[in-house]
């Protein structure tokens, strides 16, 4: 073997050894910096990721196109809203001259609402859906809501990725203000997790909670400016939107994606505080009643 060959083997061994060292360091370092409630989730990350993979595959099992439906369905939604509202109905937003303005406004609201609705709706029933698993296996019960959030996140990022391509193709991508989507997502997901876990625990003991929340969700959708702009509401009604935590968050997404502007950060204060309180309440309820839930299921 020539000098170059030996040098290549030496470099390959060095890289392999470095990769092992980094992997070993991360395994010991990550659990130390994680909050206490997240350490069991990290220890059971294989179970969580395997469950996410199985749920995603089960959704499209025995279908001819398989996982392609994860792309086709949201793509069809974007195309339908675009064609109907921008081309056929010629719908316009007040103060927005863009042909696709209302279509972008509608998609931004519906995609964002869809993430919230999927997390909360599935989280409130997650302990019922996996009752047999909870009774037979010993594992951190918080793994189940985590799987729900990750699956909803995958669906959201597929849809939002396609929507972003549409924005780029039509010349409507917001540019730097799009970075505001990250804190908006954090607030939305935190609020959804807190509310979902709280409802999930309560639903185990009070079965009417799940049925009632389905009705509340329908009213909540129409009481949030998603398919209509807040400006069409009477002046005396608009201040009430400040008590709707989703109104400010979804308006933030719409401001970024429609107008290409940064959101009004002060309008997110109520949603942020409520998200934190719901997370604390949800985890407290869960830790307090985790043992009793097994008997109730």
Q: For the CA atoms, what is the radius of gyration?
A: 23 Å
Average the pLDDT over all residues and give the rounded result: 79
How many individual helices? 12
Structural class: mainly alpha
Describe this structure in words.
There is one protein chain. By secondary structure, this protein is an all-alpha fold. It has two domains: 1-33; 36-296, no CATH class. Helix content is 72%, strand content 0%. It is built from twelve helices and no strands. It has helices at residues 3-33, 39-43, 45-59, 69-88, 101-123, 126-129, 131-136, 143-169, 181-205, 208-222, 245-259, 269-296. The longest helix has 31 residues, at 3-33. The radius of gyration is 23 Å and the shape is globular. The termini are far apart.
Task: Summarize, please.
This protein has 297 residues and is an all-alpha fold. The chain is 72% helix and 0% strand. It has helices at residues 3-33, 39-43, 45-59, 69-88, 101-123, 126-129, 131-136, 143-169, 181-205, 208-222, 245-259, 269-296.
What is the topological layout?
Blueprint: H1 3-33, H2 39-43, H3 45-59, H4 69-88, H5 101-123, H6 126-129, H7 131-136, H8 143-169, H9 181-205, H10 208-222, H11 245-259, H12 269-296
Helix pairs in contact: 3-8, 4-5, 4-8, 5-8, 5-9, 5-11, 9-11, 9-12, 11-12
Keywords for this structure?
297 residues; mainly alpha
């Amino acid at each position: 073997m020539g000098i170059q060959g030996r040098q290549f083997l030496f470099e390959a061994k060095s890289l392999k050894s470095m990769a092992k060292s980094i992997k070993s360091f991360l395994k010991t370092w990550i659990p130390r910096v994680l909050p206490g409630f997240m350490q069991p989730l990290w220890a059971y990350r294989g179970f969580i990721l395997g469950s996410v993979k199985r749920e995603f595959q089960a959704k499209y099992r025995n279908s001819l196109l398989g996982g392609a439906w994860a792309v086709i369905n949201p793509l069809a939604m974007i195309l339908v809203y675009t064609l109907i509202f921008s081309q056929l109905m010629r719908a316009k937003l007040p103060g927005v001259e863009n042909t696709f303005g209302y279509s972008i406004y509608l998609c931004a609201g519906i995609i964002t609402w869809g993430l919230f609705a999927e997390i909360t709706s599935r989280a409130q029933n997650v302990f019922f859906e996996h009752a047999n698993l909870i009774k037979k296996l010993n594992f951190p019960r918080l793994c189940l809501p985590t799987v729900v959030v990750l699956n909803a996140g995958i669906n959201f990022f597929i849809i939002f990725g396609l929507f972003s391509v549409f924005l780029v193709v039509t010349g409507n991508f917001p540019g730097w203000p799009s970075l505001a989507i990250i804190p908006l997502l954090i607030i939305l997901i935190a609020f959804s997790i807190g509310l979902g876990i709280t409802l999930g625990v309560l639903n185990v003991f009070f079965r009417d909670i799940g049925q009632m929340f389905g009705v509340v969700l329908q009213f909540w959708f129409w009481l949030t400016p998603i398919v209509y702009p807040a400006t069409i509401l009477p002046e005396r009604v608009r201040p009430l939107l400040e008590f709707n935590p989703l109104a400010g968050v979804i308006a933030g997404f719409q401001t970024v994606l429609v107008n290409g502007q940064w959101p009004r950060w002060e309008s997110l204060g109520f949603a942020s505080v409520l998200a934190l309180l719901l997370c604390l309440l949800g985890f407290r309820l869960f830790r307090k009643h985790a043992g009793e839930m097994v008997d109730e299921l």
